[in-house]
User: What shape does this take?
Amino acid sequence: MRIRHLLALLALVAAVPCAAADSPKAEIEQVVTRFQASLKTHDRAALANLFLADSKAWWNVLGEESYRKVKAKHPEAARYKAGTWQEFADYVGGTKASIEERFHNVRIETDGSVASVYFDFEFVADGKVGNKGAETWQLIRTDDGWKIASMLYSSNF
Assistant: This one.
């Protein structure tokens, strides 16, 4: 009888990681992984699939030092600017440089319907960090899985 209990316990323990792998947080972690992979492979289509098709919420905010540098050369420069994931996807798909975005201290919060991902990043082109800062994504669960609805990031170069 003890062996049956032990086997049942082992089966239960083995099933727990499988259930966790299907959790909303694990699904969002896969979005993060696919985002990074699409940059390395210059896969515009894979990157585009991670975003809500009609989303235009993309903001870049210059960090203090970067803002001072830009403002010294261009007094009319704004601290922040809007963009689109489509522009970024076009860059990823068209650049000849090797690119990657390294993420550190990734934090995911979700209730299963909406989510927030916040992390520190380094954007690397041809082996050199060209930009770093903090980045945050807001995601929603759609019928086709998790999609990035908006993105904000700071630029420190």
Summary: Strands lie at 57-62, 80-82, 99-110, 114-125, 128-142, 145-155. Residues 2-21 form the longest helix (20 residues).
